[in-house]
Fold this protein.
Amino acid sequence: MNTQMTQRLLVTEPDQIPVGGYGLRVLEVPGRRSGEPRRTPVGLLRLEDGYRLVCPDRTRDWPSNLIAAGHGSVLAGGRRDDYRTEELHGRPAAEAVSRYLAAVDAPWAVAAFGLPDHPTPEQVEPALDRMAVFALVPAQS
């Protein structure tokens, strides 16, 4: 299923992501052991000061690869945007997760976080140790 979704996202012109919203994109990151490019579909959150990626399980391959590499690319509709990544912790991470869950309209995705409906940052903070949250910084900055 991820392969099919990835292929569709790569060729389909993406919708603009509004501030406070999210959009599906493809994340490309070097594999932490192989160095080979790895692609996976992700929900990209847009905040006032940039983009965030959140994952309910920091042990998944893509967050582990992103932590190891410190950079990645966001792909969609034939476009590639390169980013440095900064792992977030504490209040900034909790706010990003809270905003992401408020924006996502997929019950299965929300359920993966194991948090109450519409969690506040205060409700997210105790669970952050099992999550991964990243800020994306344009590579040319």
In short: The chain has one domain: 2-138. The radius of gyration is 14 Å. The chain has five helices and six strands. Residues 90-103 form the longest helix (14 residues).
